[in-house]
Amino acid sequence: MDNRQKEINNLKDYKYGFSTDIENIQAPKGLNEDVIKFISNIKKEPAWMLEFRLKAFERFKVLKEPDWQKPKFPKIDYQDLYYYSAPKSLKDKPKSLDELDPKLLETYKKLGIPLQEQARLNGIAVDAVFDSVSVATTFKDELTKQGIIFCPISEAIQNHPELVKKYLGSVIPTSDHFFATLNSAVFTDGSFVYIPEGVRCPMELSTYFRINASNTGQFERTLIIADKGSYVSYLEGCTAPMRDENQLHAANVELIALDDAEIKYSTVQNWYPGDKDGKGGIYNFVTKRGLCKGKNSKISWTQVETGSAITWKYPSCILKGDNSVGEFYSIAITNNHQKADTGTKMIHLGKNTKSKIISKGISAGSSDMTYRGLVDISSKAKNSTNYTQCDSLLMGNKCGAHTVPYIKNKNSESNIAHEATTSKISEEQLHYCQQRGLNPEEAVGLIVNGFCKEVLQQLPMEFAVEAQKLVGISLEGSVG
Amino acid sequence: MKEQLQKDFDNSIKNLSLSQKDIEIKKFCLDNFIDKGFPNRKEEDWKFSDLNQIIKNNIGELSFYNDQTSTNKVDTSVFVDGLEHNKIVFINGRIEKIDFEYEKKDQIEIIDQSETINEFKNSNSLSDLNNAFTNKCFKILVKKGYQLVKPLIIYHTTNSKIWSKNINLRLNFELDNDSSLRLIDLFNDTSEKNFLNIFYNFELKENAVLKNYKVDKFENKNIKYSFNNIDQDKNSISETFILSSGSNFSKNEINCNLNGVYASSFVNGVFSLNNDKHHEIRSIINHLTENTKSYQLIKSVLDGSSKAVYQGKIFVNSDAQKTDGYQLSKAILLNKESEFNAKPELEIYADDVKCSHGSASGSLNEDSIFYLMSRGLSYQQSRELLINGFLLDVVEKITDSEIKNLIKNMIGIKE
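ok -> structure tokens follow
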């Protein structure tokens, strides 16, 4: 304890040179108030932010890790983690593409990511190959002209405290569930987006463009606010495979749409899924929640989940404003020993609210997939409708596909319809494709893409192509 | 509640001639129940119906001891007219009559099984309660190749002699190869504020056919829990129909294990609720081997501030290729206070299967009402006609025409 205290004290005095020396900084191992103070301090956060974190931590102490989920995992020792770890030093990074795993390169090639992008994704000598900084700033100028704020959340805490203070924790409060609360206490960085009244964001915003976001670590926090009558489409891309042991990724994403605003949030998630025997891989335990706060607002989640050893997340919409709309489009693919427990929650509070859920699950190998969702129409949500469709496709007899929808209707003027099917690719379809000259793998790819089409269509163009290829890659080796 | 349970347990043991070992087993079950208590909403299976709370609010203090030393008079006026049938009569939880007058006596065996204990894979604390307090339990064995000529009606009657009591019932059935049984459970309650806890266990051998119709029609203020465990061998068929309407609270649970190839299971249910009734059907169909089939259809019409819950699960084992599973639940909410909750669940580990479920809930279709009114019907008539048609769909699924007509008459559904 004494050593740790000293370390912290040393760091408190450390005023300069963050930009150069930060690479070596790591918080002491473990989770306690000091570590939280350390994180807050190193980010030069105002007092209210520290208070927010400590409040969350107080709550976290009394919470128990949930265990109702389908995929079980070995117990995580929360005292054995680093809660603040700056990017690894340059020494550890691969010097050139030749040093990378050839398999990884192959994946890139298939995805069609340009060479300099490949390099950037792996953090190889960014400055030499690809001047991403300037690219980022060009975009930034254009955004600033329109009054759009798009920056790391730690910057927003400094520069726009009034906005952050007002909205942070308004959708995912500090008193939420276990992982969300943990995130509130120790989150390190993430994105902050504010679209002013009546502005239609001229481009797709993405973590991809934002340099600082590339190695933010395990506890991201994203906050997106769309003011009255605005529109934004946000892409969250984790297309770079990460090479890691089982690692916890517990991000929080909060979306707030005011009157007549629309937020479209797309994710293509391809974290490292572990090897063929199920060793390693990311635990992706993310809390994503959107609040349609104003009238006629709309929030739409689109996700393509192909990575992670365990995916456990339910992007949700709280439809509070009258006439608001929530949408959820999802493709989840599990192969080998991957496990996914994912779905959505649609909570109808306002009048004339509408929600739509399209979920496509594909499981292959020895994997296991669960759709778990909630549709809750409260007694005040007059004239609301929900439509849910979840289809599962099974490949092989060692995998599992499960559907667990919770449907609650408390309003007699509202309608809910739910459909779910589970089946395998029919022999006839395969035969038809093969007869026309496709090999079995191509045939499956084609059929699966057709199965997923409804969701793929929702993705922005740049992502759709990538995702389509990703679907094919994820299922490689699962046929025959 | 603990002292009450202990005291009542000692009282009920006193009147029974049980061996020391049996008493110990019963005691073990009692301790289990004391430990767990009534199921509450923290348990996933009871998420939508918190029995602990419901009993607390509606009954308050329960007593568990039933004096069964004296017989009750059988009121013959409750017997169904116009249908010849065999009878088992329970009055206030005591078996008063077992009568198979239309059957060959040597083809049916009635075995006293009071000493055996229920052991179900997915049991809850209520099975412990049942084990601890049932003092008479019979097994009805239908012998090889025998098909009962007439249906068997089990009358569950309670009268105003009992109040705030817990009644536990248990029956076991075994249908040997090629046998068949039609069974109607008729609830006839004039009592109030009692908790009925009923466990049935069915064992269906090859080619056996079981048709079970549960009719809870008469208005009463009781709380009911009924659990059916059905084990099915090769080629056997089980059909369960539930009319859930009369009691204040009712939960029907069906656990069906399809152990043999080509076995099939059908579960159909109707909720017709008003006032502040709260009913639930929970079904678990376990497809454990290949080529098995299940079909479920549940429809609800909810008025007042009533609440209906349907939790249906189709489980498909990795060996159960070529499974065909289907599940559909539909609800009409007539009042803005009424509520429908569903949790249709699929858990599938085999790839060559065809499984689907659907669930829909909403109001009566205004366009349909308009159509009927434009043809001269009043609003009320149109409404009734639509509800009638909606529910008829389920009643039509009853495969036995004699019983279909009986049930149609009972609930006043027209063709």
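Residues 440-456 of chain A form the longest helix (17 residues).
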